[in-house]
Fold this protein.
Amino acid sequence: MWPSLQLLSILLAVPVAVFACEGECIVGITHAFVGNYSNPIQSVLHEIDNQIIERIVPQHDGMSYLQPILTAYTNSSYDGMETAIFPSYFHGKCQVNGVDPKGCPNPDCPVVCGTPGSLVHFYPTLRFIAFNETREAMRLYTSSDSEAYRQVEHDVVRAAGKQARAAVPRFARYGDDVAGVMGENMPYVKKREESAKKALREILDEIPDLLAKACGGSAKDSVDGLPSCSWDAAMQEYILSFP
């Protein structure tokens, strides 16, 4: 039912010699976080899809109604993630008066700057930045004025309306005014469609909380925050593979 997002192995990128995290370092780390969030996002969208089916369109064709949102995230998530990490928070060199502080540029730099060592030292902040960017991206793609949301709403409302029309009594006897029966029941169909719109909005508004839950229910900038979306050991090892 759910096509897999491409999982990006954090061990595939080939590091190059850099003074700070730039070029391949920036690209590799950004792709790693986007890839890491593939499973949490799919888990959340799968749960949302189930709610849509249970609450709005119980008779469905087995296809996901949320594909437009998944596609929007897949196509646009990299740029937002890179900007949130580099240069919005981690940027620049760590030198003070031309001298590298202890642990800079690698492996554990206690100065907020653009080196791998700084990213490792402030890793709880880094992973919280990645979580917030992912959460805000999903909030954006599910906002009522987004193209992805409008497509999802169209498909869900159409399916709800189709099911409502199918529930309208039809009579097999020759001469029955089927058109008249349908006309009399149009208010019922419209009510079902409006109810579907409202329910969809309520369901999609749960995504930020569901993502936090998928990440361990502790969305905060601390060493124990986001326990299911930390990837600490593997990510720190990968980050430090860049000089």
